[in-house]
From TrEMBL:
InterPro entries (UniProt xref): 4pyrrol_Mease, 4pyrrol_Methylase_sf, 4pyrrole_Mease_sub1, 4pyrrole_Mease_sub2, CobA/CysG_C, Siro_Cobalamin_biosynth, Uropor_MeTrfase_CS
Pathway info: Porphyrin-containing compound metabolism; siroheme biosynthesis; precorrin-2 from uroporphyrinogen III: step 1/1
The organism's taxonomic lineage, starting at the top: Bacteria, Pseudomonadati, Pseudomonadota, Alphaproteobacteria, Rhodobacterales
Every Tetrapyrrole methylase domain range: 13-222
Top-level taxon in the UniProt lineage: Bacteria
CDD domains, sorted: SUMT
Species annotation: Marivita hallyeonensis
Signal sequence residues: none
Its EC number(s): 2.1.1.107
GO annotation terms (biological process): methylation; siroheme biosynthetic process
Keyword terms of this UniProt record: Methyltransferase, Porphyrin biosynthesis, S-adenosyl-L-methionine, Transferase
Name of a matching Pfam family: TP_methylase
Matches recorded under PROSITE patterns: SUMT_1, SUMT_2
Identification of the protein by name: uroporphyrinogen-III C-methyltransferase
């Protein structure tokens, strides 16, 4: 039986976390990778401010995926990374936030491993950290919660199921990614399992960016708050947390621009 022999590429593919969008939150190592790359294959949510930092001769290739919308198939993205790496180019696969958090990293690593191509991972600041900083809160707090959950609102099969009974307990905190379309589903599951309707839920849109907004709500008002505020950018639901700012209220679908 014939077996294809994979020749090692001269440079490993670098999977780089772009952070939530503010270029000042990019790590030094990530910046160095961007400025020395021959090609950057980036996600849809990577901000223009981050893309502006690439080297003058670097090629940009958009591999954007959008939940419930038109997307490049994952298999095509895998093939694109391998194709570029086999030319001998320095390839950066740029993912928003941290590539290890809901970034489909394992699928791309598996494809590189099968192709005999090496890789490195440069972690980035995940959006939950930027969002909670905006609120003036912490993800964990003595006497309130000793754990925090990073969960997704939808998966490959549709709306993602969670341990709703645990999340519904008083004092639980979760950062829910990709949850705009799933808000009513999430609300229903939590209420069904006994969550307090007055549990604060804060929507942080475009965390850390110049057009960042926060929308305050409760579990009871979450879907209507999202609709009334016309949240269109990437957003996180910070379940169990309200902004520290006393001027903010989490009992109405109210929004405030953050500077």
């Amino acid at each position: 039986m014939l077996q294809e022999i994979s020749h090692p590429t001269p440079h490993p593919v670098a999977f780089v976390g772009a952070g939530p969008g503010d270029p000042e939150l990019l790590t030094v190592k990530a910046l160095r990778a961007l400025q020395t790359a021959d090609v950057v294959i980036h996600d849809r949510l990577v901000s223009e401010d981050i893309l502006a930092l690439v080297g003058p001769h670097t090629r940009l290739r958009n591999a954007g995926k959008e939940g419930f919308g038109p997307s490049i198939p994952q298999s095509a993205i895998n093939a694109l990374i391998i194709e570029e790496a086999r030319t001998g180019a320095r390839v950066v696969r740029l993912k928003s936030g941290d590539p290890t958090v809901f970034g489909r990293l394992d699928e791309e690593l598996d494809a590189l491993h099968a192709a005999g191509i090496g890789y490195t991972i440069v972690p980035g600041l995940t959006s939950a950290s930027a969002a909670v900083a905006t609120l003036g809160q912490s993800l964990t707090k003595r006497g309130r919660n000793t754990a925090v959950r990073l969960v997704t609102g939808h998966d490959m099969q549709g709306y993602a199921d969670q341990d709703w009974r645990t999340l519904a307990r008083s004092g639980e905190v979760a950062a829910i990614y990709m949850a705009k379309r799933a808000a009513r589903f999430i609300q229903g599951r939590l209420l069904m399992h006994g969550a307090d309707p007055q549990t604060p839920v804060t929507i942080v849109e475009n965390a850390s960016r110049a057009d960042e907004r926060i929308v305050t709500a409760t579990l009871a008002t979450l879907p209507s708050a999202l609709f009334a505020s016309d949240v269109t950018g990437p957003a996180l639901l910070m379940y169990g947390l309200a902004p520290r700012d006393a001027r903010m209220t989490h009992t109405m679908p109210q929004q405030q621009e953050m500077i």
